[in-house]
């Protein structure tokens, strides 16, 4: 039996993708110092960013490459704790923004030390971005592999595959070639505009919103979280739903959900076949 969902509200858009790069201006920059870095691109096939708690604004371009960082600290003594480096690992250039050391706030005065990294690099390379508790915005690159801890990553205009794994952070993407989400923990993912297929390994207690997919969607498992799928031109396949929900609307192909626990699947506007567990 097809279910009609109750009134429910999914997580709002956290940042406007239309305004990329969408890293909000951080006013925590009482003391600043620019750090230029000439990128070593000779023979490079891919570039990896490891940004930890810092910020990254990465753009792909066919023009001149540039790479720099702005060190922002609450106390000038913290400048020496910040590191902005590059190293070669085979044909991969690894760019790292990190902090060595800690600060202690006095009389409730906030203390901080982080880097704002700005990069304009060749569009045709493969990119990797590892976000810890920081923030990153990436646009106009050939492909992207990423990992998000408790921070935030925004992606826009990637022609090829975008892959990611999400802990407790947030992932937002628009206008990409294909999607591979290895797992979502307690964080959230919102993706709009996938030209090809979308694959999701597992959703824990977090949420997934996936809208406007040109290919098929496959989700391995949904735990206590929720998935909202809308505008899928291929098939939708979900292996299992635990106590969470799947809201599936406007599918050209077939919809298959193999098992459902205490959660539910709400399915409507499907032009193909709908296959749910018996009694659902």
Notes on the protein architecture:
The relative contact order is 0.13. This protein has 2 domains: 29-130, no CATH class; 142-271, no CATH class. The protein has strands spanning 31-36, 46-52, 55-61, 66-73, 82-89, 92-99, 113-122, 126-131, 135-139, 143-148, 152-166, 170-184, 188-194, 198-203, 207-213, 217-222, 226-232, 236-241, 245-251, 255-260, 264-270, 274-275. A hairpin with a 2-residue loop joins strand 5 and strand 6. The protein has a 22-stranded mixed beta sheet that branches. The protein is mainly beta and 280 residues long.
What structural category characterises the helix and strand content? mainly beta
Compute the CA-based radius of gyration. 21 Å
Helical percent range? Answer: under 10%
| Strand content bin | over 45%
Domain module count: 2
Instruction: Give the overall silhouette.
Output: elongated
| Amino- and carboxy-terminal Cα gap | 5 Å
Report on the biggest sheet.
Answer: 22 strands, mixed
Order of helices and strands: EEEEEEEEEEEEEEEEEEEEEE
Mean pLDDT figure: 91
Provide a count of the helices.
0
Number of strands: 22
Unreliable sequence segments: 6-25
Write the layout of secondary structure elements.
Blueprint: E1 31-36, E2 46-52, E3 55-61, E4 66-73, E5 82-89, E6 92-99, E7 113-122, E8 126-131, E9 135-139, E10 143-148, E11 152-166, E12 170-184, E13 188-194, E14 198-203, E15 207-213, E16 217-222, E17 226-232, E18 236-241, E19 245-251, E20 255-260, E21 264-270, E22 274-275
Parallel strand pairs: 2-6, 2-8, 3-7, 3-9, 8-10, 9-11, 10-11, 11-12, 12-13, 12-14, 13-15, 14-16, 15-17, 16-18, 17-19, 18-20, 19-21, 20-22
Antiparallel strand pairs: 1-4, 4-7, 5-6
